[in-house]
C-alpha cells in the first residue's frame, strides 16, 4: 500500500524540507490541507525540493473558488511539478462556504460534478485547443482569449481527486473524478458497504469500472511510545472522533454501526459548546472502530489488514503532534 505524508501545517514555512524528507523516507505522496494556510503555495516549495514524490492538495475547498481560478493554479502546479501534482478537492459544509468564504451553496453534489466538468472543459481548451463552450446550472465559461491562455505544457492537466462521505458526492467521484479521498471519519465497514458501491455506481454511469478510480484512505492512528504520553494520544483521538461524530453530515457512518443516538448526543454537546465533554462520551468500541492504536509495527500491520483490500493508498491522520520518526516507522512497517 502506498502511504502519503501530510505537511505539519504549523510549520508551513518548512514545506520544502518536509517534502524532501517525505521523499527520502519512502512516502509515495506529500499533501497539504486547507485549514489555517493556503493549500497551494507550500506545494510550489515542495515541487522545487523534490523529484519523484506526488504532490497534492488534501483538500482544497472547491466551493471557495471558481473553476477558472482552480484551473489556473492546477495547470500551473502540474507544470511546475513536472506532472506530479494532483488536485484534491472537497466541498466543505454550508456554514463555512456561506459564512466564512461568502460564497454560494446549493445542491453540493450536483455543483461539484459541474465544477469538475468545467475544470476539464477549461483544461481541454488550454491543452488541446478545444473551444471553450461550457454552460451549466452553476458555472458558465465561454470566453478565453490568447492573452489569458496559458501555454500548453508536456505534462498536461492534473488528475482530480474528490473528497466525499455521503453517497451522492461519492457517486460524483466515481463518475467524473480520477480518485476518491475518503474522510478520516470512516470505517472499514462503511467503506465496504457504502463507499465503494457508490463509487462503482458513479463509475458505471461514465462507462468505467471501480478499478478506474483511485481510492485514498485517511485512517486515524495513534502511535504509542511517541513524543506524547499514551493517554494524550488516546485523548486526542477521542476528541477528534467525537468532533466529527457531532456533525450531522457524518451521521450515516455512525448509523451504519447502530450508533445514531451517540451522534445525537455529540451534536447536542457541540451546540452547547461543551467540547471537553464530547471525547469522554465516546465508548471504547467506537474509538477502536474508527482509530488504529499501537506501536509503529502494530499500526502498520493493522492499516494493511483493515484497509489493504479497500483502498489503493492512504494518508495517515494523527490528531495532535506525532513525531516524524514514529510516522516514518509506520511507513517502514508497511513497505
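Q: What amino acid sequence fits the structure above?
A:
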Amino acid at each position: 500500500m502506498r502511504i502519503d505524508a501530510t505537511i505539519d501545517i504549523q510549520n508551513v514555512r518548512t514545506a520544502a524540507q518536509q517534502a524532501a524528507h517525505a521523499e527520502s523516507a519512502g512516502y509515495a505522496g506529500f499533501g497539504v490541507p486547507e485549514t489555517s494556510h493556503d493549500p497551494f503555495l507550500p506545494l510550489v516549495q515542495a515541487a522545487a525540493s523534490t523529484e519523484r514524490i506526488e504532490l497534492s492538495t488534501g483538500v482544497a475547498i472547491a466551493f471557495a473558488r471558481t473553476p477558472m481560478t482552480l484551473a489556473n493554479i492546477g495547470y500551473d502546479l502540474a507544470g511546475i511539478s513536472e506532472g506530479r501534482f494532483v488536485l484534491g478537492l472537497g466541498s466543505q459544509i454550508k456554514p463555512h462556504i456561506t459564512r466564512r468564504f461568502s460564497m454560494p451553496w446549493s445542491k453540493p453534489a450536483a455543483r461539484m460534478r459541474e465544477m469538475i466538468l468545467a475544470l476539464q472543459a477549461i483544461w481541454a481548451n488550454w491543452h488541446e485547443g478545444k473551444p471553450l463552450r461550457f454552460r451549466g446550472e452553476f458555472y458558465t465559461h465561454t470566453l478565453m482569449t490568447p492573452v489569458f491562455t496559458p501555454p500548453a505544457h508536456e505534462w498536461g492537466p492534473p488528475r482530480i481527486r474528490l473528497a466525499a462521505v455521503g453517497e451522492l458526492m461519492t457517486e460524483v467521484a466515481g463518475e467524473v473524478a480520477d480518485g476518491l479521498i475518503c474522510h478520516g471519519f470512516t470505517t472499514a465497514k462503511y467503506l465496504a458497504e457504502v463507499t465503494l458501491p457508490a463509487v462503482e455506481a458513479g463509475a458505471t454511469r461514465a462507462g468505467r469500472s471501480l478499478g478506474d478510480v483511485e481510492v485514498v484512505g485517511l485512517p486515524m492512528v495513534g502511535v504509542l511510545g511517541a513524543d506524547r504520553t499514551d493517554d494524550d494520544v488516546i485523548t486526542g483521538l477521542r476528541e477528534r472522533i467525537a468532533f466529527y461524530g457531532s456533525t450531522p453530515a457524518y451521521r450515516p457512518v455512525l448509523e451504519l454501526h447502530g450508533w445514531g443516538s451517540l451522534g445525537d448526543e455529540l451534536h447536542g454537546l457541540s451546540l452547547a459548546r461543551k467540547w471537553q465533554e464530547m471525547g469522554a462520551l465516546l465508548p471504547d468500541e467506537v474509538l477502536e472502530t474508527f482509530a488504529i492504536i499501537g506501536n509503529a509495527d502494530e499500526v502498520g500491520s493493522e492499516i494493511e489488514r483493515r484497509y489493504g483490500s479497500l483502498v489503493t493508498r492512504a494518508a495517515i491522520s494523527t490528531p495532535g503532534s506525532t513525531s516524524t520518526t514514529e510516522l516514518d516507522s509506520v511507513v517502514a512497517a508497511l513497505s
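Q: And what stands out in the fold?
A: The chain has two domains: 59-218, 219-335.
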